[in-house]
Design goal:
The chain has 366 residues and is an alpha+beta fold. Helices cover 31% and strands 26% of the residues. It has a five-stranded antiparallel beta sheet with strand order 3-4-8-6-7. Strands 11-12-10-13 form a four-stranded antiparallel beta sheet. A four-stranded antiparallel beta sheet has the order 15-16-14-17, covered by helices on one side. β11 and β12 form a beta hairpin.
Length: 366
């Protein structure tokens, strides 16, 4: 099923007599393997309102992300949160869509400064599991349903409703960027360096440690400011730093964003969110190739296929998500971190409210 309008989508959901597998571009195939009728949102495409002067855009959920980014780039603007492209990591095809980006709350290295996708999302339209069309937020923020759907829908993976339209606040594209690339250091040293850099007044908006053991720190802005802040940061940190700018810097961060170091390599890939101060211990517990982003708050781990990494990590403050694994692994292991009882009860209550028949991506999130 591929509806061409919101009304048609509403009718399809209302008429459903069994589970629906909601899909945008099919590039983020994680979670438990879906069973049901395929419902594609690609027919709901196009930018409905773009006001460059107000730094806002309204776009239909099935719009290819590349189309939106091209339109923004033409006006010297961008989405603040640097959404990752998972195709190389997952070995998937298809075209990333705006709805898939929001449903997964896709956020890249710039999250340490600009926040996640949900922080730039200011409005949504959706069809819930009963076929009802709901609108929340927009250019004038107003909660009319009793729920902050803008925040709920980001990261809900299509289990609460099928997105039809999304509104975002934007940022200008900076004139220049520079990356400081350090010598090889341990995870403990890396977290200390990244924390120090993020604590300076030099507006670091990317802080990562790669599988090669090198810390990367990014600064963006006007050319003269970037040159000054880069030199000042290097002096503040001490040590030896390689300087990358322009396309060399941008290409490095695309690789960090998309975890290209683990693309095409055998094994499962886990995404671990922790307090940066806990990251070195988590890296040691994982005992497999890792990379860190967000100053140590995000760990990517490449593990043996079928390994229950979450069990090996033990108790920790954070959560671990199985991003890439075989269908057998995804069926055997909880893909998302099991929730504490109070949180699980709240989540179940939300699903009962928005999808009382349980037709939208049932079982995807465990």
């Amino acid at each position: 099923m591929r509806p061409a309008s919101e009304d048609e989508l509403s009718e399809m959901v209302r008429a459903a007599r069994g589970p629906l597998v909601v899909r945008g571009g099919g590039t983020r195939a994680l979670g438990r393997p879906g069973i049901g009728d395929l419902l594609e949102t690609g027919g709901l495409s196009g930018i409905t309102l773009y006001e460059p002067g107000a730094l806002t855009v309204v776009v239909r959920a099935g719009t290819p992300l590349a189309d939106l980014e091209a339109a923004l780039h033409a006006e010297g603007q961008r989405l603040p949160f640097e959404p990752m492209d998972m195709r190389a990591l997952l070995g998937s095809s298809g075209i990333p869509t705006v709805g898939g980006m929001v449903a997964s709350n896709a956020s890249g290295p710039r999250r340490v400064q600009a926040g996640a996708c949900r922080d730039s999302l200011i409005g949504v339209r959706l069809v819930d599991g009963t076929g009802t069309v709901i609108k929340n937020g927009g250019r004038v923020m107003k909660n009319v349903t009793g729920y902050d759907l803008v925040k709920l829908m980001a990261g809900s993976w299509g289990t609460l409703g099928v997105l039809t339209e999304c509104s975002f606040k934007l940022l200008p594209v900076p004139a220049a960027e520079v990356t400081l690339l350090g010598d090889e250091v341990s995870p403990q040293q890396a977290v200390q360096i990244m924390g120090q850099a993020l604590g300076t007044p030099y507006e670091v908006n990317g802080a990562a440690w790669g599988a090669n053991g090198r810390v990367a720190l990014r600064i963006e802005g006007f050319a003269e400011q970037v040159a000054y802040r880069g030199a000042a940061l290097r002096a503040a940190l001490g040590g030896t730093w390689e300087m990358l700018d322009g396309e060399a810097s941008a290409d490095l961060w695309r690789g960090i964003r998309d975890v290209k170091a683990f693309a095409g390599q055998a094994g499962d890939v886990w995404r671990i969110s922790v307090r940066p101060s806990d990251a070195p211990e988590m890296v040691a517990r994982a005992g497999c190739p890792v990379a860190m982003d967000w100053g140590g708050g995000l760990i990517w781990a490449l593990c043996a296929s079928g390994r229950d990494l979450r069990a090996d990590l033990g108790a920790f403050r954070g959560h671990a998500t199985l991003i890439r694994g075989s269908e057998a692994t995804r069926a055997a292991l909880p893909v998302f971190q099991p929730e504490a009882a109070p949180v699980a009860a709240l989540a179940q209550g939300l699903r009962a409210r928005f999808d009382p028949r349980g037709v939208l991506n049932p079982g995807l999130m465990g």
